[in-house]
Design brief:
Layout: H1 5-22, H2 25-28, E1 32-39, E2 46-48, H3 50-62, E3 67-78, E4 84-95, E5 101-114, E6 117-127
Length: about 130
């Protein structure tokens, strides 16, 4: 039995969070659409495309005091007319060394089902703390 779209997206987000915590680029790649767009929370930097995002994560993973980002979905809104969905929730970035939260805020992600898998097409972040 196939998972509902909401459950499939929540499971994909959990896998993304685990991959970020483990600094696992190979696990992140399949969760991103080829032309994925990320708009960062504080400086509104735009990262366009899977390759660019993986390079950004590679740099982040190599940082001396690495930050581990976690997305905590509150709602998943699945379109009744197309294989797309919006995820809304909270995010936080914590020090990998001590676990202290360094930044947090809200986010929205757009997902698309492609060949039976849900992938991220876009993410927009707002830094609130």
């Amino acid at each position: 039995m196939q998972a509902s779209p909401e459950l499939a997206i929540r499971m994909a987000r959990a896998a993304f969070n685990r991959a970020l915590a483990a600094a696992d680029l190979a696990a992140i790649g399949p969760l991103l659409g080829a032309d994925v767009v990320l708009v960062a929370g504080t400086d509104s930097a735009v990262i366009q495309g899977r390759k660019a995002q993986l390079l950004a994560w590679k740099r982040e993973f190599a940082a001396r005091d690495r930050t581990v980002y976690t997305r905590l979905p509150d709602t998943i809104l699945v379109s009744p007319v197309a294989p797309i969905a919006f995820e809304h929730g909270r995010w936080e970035g914590a020090s990998a060394g001590g676990g202290a939260v360094q930044a947090s805020g809200s986010y929205t992600a757009k997902w698309r089902e492609i060949d039976g898998s849900w992938v991220i097409e876009a993410e927009l972040y707002l830094t609130l703390a």
